[in-house]
# Entry
Amino acid sequence: MKHKIALITGVTGQDGSYLAEFLLNKNYIVHGIRRINSNNNLNNLTNILNSKYKRRFNLHYGDITDSTNLHKILSRVKPHEIYNLAAQSHVHVSFQIPEYTHNVNALGCLKLLEAIKNLKINCKLYQASTSELFGNNNNKIQNEQTPFKPISPYSISKLYSYNLINYYMHQGMFACNGILFNHESPRRGNSFVTQKIINAALRIKNNSNETLNLGNLYAKRDWGYAKEYVKYMWKMLQLKNPENLVIASGKTYSVKEFVNKVFNKLDMPIKWHGKGINEVGINKKNNKILIKIDPYYFRKIELNNLLGDASKAKKLIKFKPKVSLDQLIDIMIEKKDIDI
Ligand code: NAP
Ligand code: G4F
# Structure
């Protein structure tokens, strides 16, 4: 049987690891690029490395900023599909390291595109684009027609790669942008707000004396389930022609609502007191302060409201999100993925 070959950059991350599992299940041969790291960074790949699929899974050391290495890997692997998920993906951190963020997210994508073109690799390319591109738009709901107003080094770097993809697409390459809204899972990095809240709440439930320090409680996000969303990255590459598509749940909640849901589920209902940096979240049952505001976590500019309209994806790739925010929180509290 002839296997399709996929290459995933960012395979050790949240999405990369779920996508690798999804493609191996679909009988692909999967190659992934991992960065050299003095600590083992393969935790998200444990399922694969302990499974029968290991035989069809190959890891290559590399870095998206290293074009010599990209050329070497591409000419060896000759993938049919490439998923460019590698990124400095943290918005808050991007304000501190804007140059590095651009080297990885913007120039990394350029180096990959040029390598594909120069080596004449006949493949389809998915680029991990983002709802951060929309910035603080007046639109209440964002879709493929909504103008972009990036407001962070991260989103500016991702707008560069978004535009590059369109440029190569118009030159005839099958390259497309998945404009994904926030998506989370038990594999979400610890410093992103959902995982941070859940881990702290679990520790507090287990008698830790800590307080959870947060930034802006009033920003709203459209949160979905990462394991569910990776399927639609693949579906985008099964289209006849490349299309940029929004993937979103179509529901939005504030960080504060997320906190309330998590602490309620763990039987520590929260009442709120005070305003601004003096606002605190108190356990209704014992009056202990559990949540405080720490201005360190405020961003230079905040993106206030994300709410996606995925109508185009619903039509073209039958996008149908099944997991609600409440289910997602349960999955993250249990730290156990569900079949999807
Ligand atoms: P993630 O967990 O932070 O994973 C990022 C991956 O990129 C990791 O494997 C990381 O490797 C790798 N990476 C970082 N710098 C690299 C470099 N210079 N060369 C090669 N690899 C590098 O992010 P994610 O949540 O899975 O997101 C995947 C992609 O989708 C990212 O491009 C992100 O910007 C984008 N995105 C995410 C969301 C979301 O809500 N999750 C929404 C929209 C778009 P290490 O393991 O070595 O750090
Ligand atoms: O979890 P976050 O850090 O995710 P953010 O900034 O929305 O970015 C994520 O989603 C993007 C898609 O829209 C991706 F492109 C990007 O790669 C990443 O995956 O923060 C969510 C919200 C923000 O408004 C932030 O200000 O939570 C607010 N927040 C409040 N306190 C906090 C905290 N964020 C973090 N990380 N840590 C806090 O203590």
Observations:
- The chain has a mean pLDDT of 97.
- The first helix runs from residue 14 to 25.
